[in-house]
Write a structure and sequence with these properties.
Radius of gyration of chain A: 16 Å
CATH superfamily of chain A: Glutaredoxin
Strand order of the largest sheet of chain A: 2-1-3-4
Largest sheet of chain A: 4 strands, mixed
Distance between the termini of chain A: 8 Å
Strand content of chain A: 5-15%
Oligomer: homodimer
CATH topology of chain A: Glutaredoxin
CATH class of chain A: Alpha Beta
Order of helices and strands of chain A: EHEHHHHHHHHEEH
Shape of chain A: globular
Structural class of chain A: alpha+beta
């Protein structure tokens, strides 16, 4: 079965869209999905941005919020703008690498729903602990593990791997032969490429 | 029949994609298309950019060129990167407003093909004159008209109207009720919105 890397950042609105549909679509296409959360901050910083481009460029930001409203309405997804935007996602991303590999997708969707369907603050360790508990995961142990050198190093390495793969925004999809597709609206194309090249 | 504004800039690679498919798709959807060429330069300058973001941000630029190659191959369109990129599009845009309204689409497609299918320099007045002649249009008269105050003022007014509609990149589609859709890959959504609201 061909596989693609699904690169996502918890602060990214369009990553929320992709996270909510990627798994059923990949399954239907017969393509495996590797969930790879990373941090956009260092990649944006390398481009000279110290904030979200949606805040730096107001016309682009206004468009994105309206676009998200329309797309979420079309897909039957709740949408609420979190405050502040972007959220600090360091702890959530470390936790996503601390949970067992086969629970990463569940945990990630749960974080996105809290943030963008409910507008909650996902930098809050208590909120993240409650999301873990609802998934039947050991919150205290995982919060401790999220602070380990192993997990910190892993998240840094993933962010470097994203950058090395050419990722400059999120979500992004990378096929086994190194083709990069950027944006939730390119998920279909990425799956088609992965199938065609198998 | 509902109508949408099709905002495009001759230097824009994704506008080439949209220009080559917008008319048959709009016709099939029963939606009218108003072809509105404008200049991105003043809009980018207002965002602090004095060059294409694809040149300012190299990772984004590398992605765009590869993405264009893939999409053009998929759609059976020739693609050749013009040098320099972006092209100076002032004269082409003025000419697009100088030609009769019912020839603007033909002329615009012809400019895009010269630029992105053949990699030619569309700032060259002789090239533009030959494109006009091939379309059976009076090249000398139109080149003179392109330098008139009327046409210069029109292009400036169009660029201001694009900006006022929230346009921050090209191509963009704006429906009668003011909804903005950005990017060739949103053409379907824009047409659907225009139909739904009719």
């Amino acid at each position: 079965m061909p596989e693609i890397d699904f690169w996502y950042e918890f602060a990214s609105t369009y990553s929320y869209l992709a996270a909510m549909r990627a798994e059923p679509m990949a399954r239907a296409a017969g393509v495996g999905l590797r969930w790879r959360p990373f941090l956009l901050g260092p990649i944006f910083a390398a481009q000279g941005w110290n904030n979200s481009p949606f805040n730096i460029y107001p016309a682009k930001g206004r468009y994105m919020w309206r676009d998200m409203e329309r797309l979420c309405a079309e897909r039957g997804l709740a949408f609420r703008r979190p405050d502040p935007f972007p959220q600090n996602t360091l702890l959530a991303a470390r936790l996503a690498w601390a949970v067992p590999d086969d629970r990463r997708a569940d945990f990630s969707r749960s974080v996105y729903l809290a943030e963008f369907a409910e507008g909650r603050d996902i930098s809050d360790a208590r909120l993240l602990a409650s999301l873990l508990s609802e998934l039947g995961l050991p919150a205290d142990a995982l919060l401790a593990r999220a602070k380990s050198d192993e997990v910190k190093t892993r998240l840094r390495a993933e962010t470097e791997a994203a950058q090395a793969a050419g990722v400059f925004g999120a979500p992004a999809f990378v096929t086994a032969d190194g083709e990069l597709f950027w944006g939730d609206d390119r998920l279909e194309q990425a799956l088609g490429w992965a199938r065609g090249k198998d």
